[in-house]
Amino acid sequence: MKVGIMGGTFDPVHIGHMLAAEAALEGCALDEVWFMPSHIPPHKHAAGASGAQRLQMVERAIGTNPAFRTLDIELERGGVSYTIETIRALQERYGEHEFFFIIGADMVNSLTEWHGIEELAQRLTFVGVGRPGSVIDKSKMPIYLQPRVQLVNMPQVDISSTDIRERLQNGQTIRYMVHDHVYDYIKGSGIYEADTR
User: Fold this and answer.
1) Which of 78, 83, 70, 80 shows the shortest CA–CA distance to 111?
2) In whole angstroms, how far apart are CA 5 and each of 29, 68, 143, 145, 196?
3) Residues contacting residue 156 through CB under 8 Å, at least 6 positions apart
């Protein structure tokens, strides 16, 4: 089975994440995409949603797509999770799967700075998701990395989780920026409401 891993804080998950996952699914002929919320140390991110809330939002966002599922391995582990540690654990558990790690096309150029990148390149393929016309110059990459990077296009959507949280803090709408089920969950739980204390 060909499985894409979509990592991130997903605080909250938004339509840009969904479009990137769908573009990778189609562009690389993947069987599934697993959304993997990362752990956030409390001292670094006190104002956002908890791990359980972020997982709940992802589950609500992907519930209607049978090719999407959630993976809570980094939330369970806690602490700082390096991708290499997560992929080792996944390959131990799912040795028969071929893994693809989905990232923004803009991150491809910094892959050489990732912890354990040479081992990662042996273990999986990176999928850089970008707007039409995004260019990755593979000739500037180390030889070991060149065949391990693919680029797929997705519709350009200028939305970030930070922007969504700021809009909510300012009382602005986020309708259509997130899945309807995520919108209802956020409005019902008041996760990102301005602190009035």
Assistant:
1) 83
2) 14, 10, 24, 18, 38
3) 131, 132
Structural contact between residues 70 and 62, judged by C-beta atoms closer than 8 angstroms: yes
10-residue stretch averages of pLDDT, the chain, 197 residues long: 96 96 98 93 63 96 97 89 92 97 91 96 96 78 95 90 93 95 95 63
- C-alpha span between 57 and 63 (Å, rounded): 10
Give the DSSP per-residue string, 2-29: EEEEEEE--TT--HHHHHHHHHHHHHTT
The arrangement of strands across the sheet holding 149-153 comes to: 68-70, 32-37, 2-8, 98-104, 125-130, 149-153
> CA–CA separation, 50 vs 55, rounded Å?
9
Sign for the CA dihedral angle at 123, 81, 64, 92 comes to positive
- pTM of this structure: 0.92
Token output for 144: 């070991």
Do 103 and 126 contact (CB within 8 A), yes or no? yes
With beta carbons less than 8 A apart as the criterion, state whether 149 and 111 touch. yes
